[in-house]
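quick q for whoever's on today - can somebody do inverse folding on this one?? i tried earlier but teh output was garbage lol. tokens:
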């Protein structure tokens, strides 16, 4: 004898309905969260655009007031003298799909104030990665145009690699990452700001920096996917709980 234990439809229907409501609520909430992330990025991009449109800060203005976080991306026009002995090359920094280095050199504004300038990009030697490309660093007073920037982003380093990890044997020039405080202590002074140089390519350096994008496209795509998943759950629920039983009942009645 076979014993069949059946769950009343009312109980099963209640559980299915509850699962559908939870699933739809969760996916809709995630969709709106992605929309809020997109709105935050648009607000941040608007603030960046405002800073880039602000009046250019010259050397005197920067000396009078060091750069603050809220002034990021403001344009600057500085004059000072390069400190080429402290130039460093950050490895694994591609540009336009090519492997290479970001070149950073301190710019001395006066006797006590310096800024760190991300001067540009140079390609890496294809055979010998420790071979530094030739660049020119003018002596005397130079003029640098750029915008206030964050310190260079950190890349994941293997093992216990730090700023003291040196890829170029004996040269102490090529590094994976650069900690600004440690580098300031190493070079004997703090930096009033970090500047991304935006002059035309020169001195053997390229400056084809990517434009600052909002990046909202990914969030909007994710939001669409979450809302679509919510709609799919609702449609499947209606189909299997109402339409299909109705069609089955109609066929059975004939």
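ok took a stab at it. sequence:
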């Amino acid at each position: 004898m076979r014993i069949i234990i059946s769950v009343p439809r009312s109980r099963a229907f209640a559980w299915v309905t509850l699962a559908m409501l939870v699933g739809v609520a969760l996916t809709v909430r995630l969709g709106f969260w992605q929309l809020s992330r997109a709105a935050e990025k648009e607000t941040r991009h608007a603030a960046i655009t405002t800073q880039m449109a602000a009046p250019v800060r010259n050397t005197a203005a920067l000396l009078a007031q060091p750069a603050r976080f809220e002034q990021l991306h403001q344009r600057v026009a500085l004059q000072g003298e390069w400190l080429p002995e402290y130039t460093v090359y950050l490895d694994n920094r591609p540009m336009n799909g090519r492997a290479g280095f970001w070149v950073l050199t301190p710019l001395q504004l006066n006797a006590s104030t310096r800024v760190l300038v991300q001067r540009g990009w140079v390609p890496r030697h294809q055979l010998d990665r420790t071979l530094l490309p030739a660049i020119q660093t003018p002596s005397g007073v130079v003029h640098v145009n750029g915008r206030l920037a964050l310190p260079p982003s950190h890349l994941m380093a293997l093992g216990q690699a730090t700023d003291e990890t040196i890829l170029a044997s004996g040269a102490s020039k090529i590094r994976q990452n650069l900690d600004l405080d440690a580098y300031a202590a190493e070079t004997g002074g703090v930096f009033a700001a970090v500047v991304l140089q935006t002059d035309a390519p020169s001195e053997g350096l390229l400056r084809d920096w990517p434009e600052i994008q909002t990046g909202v496209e990914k969030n909007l795509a994710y939001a669409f996917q979450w809302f679509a998943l919510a709609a799919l759950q609702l449609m499947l629920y209606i189909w299997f709980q109402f339409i299909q039983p109705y069609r089955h009942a109609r066929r059975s009645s004939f």
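fwiw DSSP finds four helices and eight strands in the chain. also The first strand starts at residue 57 and ends at 58. so keep that in mind when u check it
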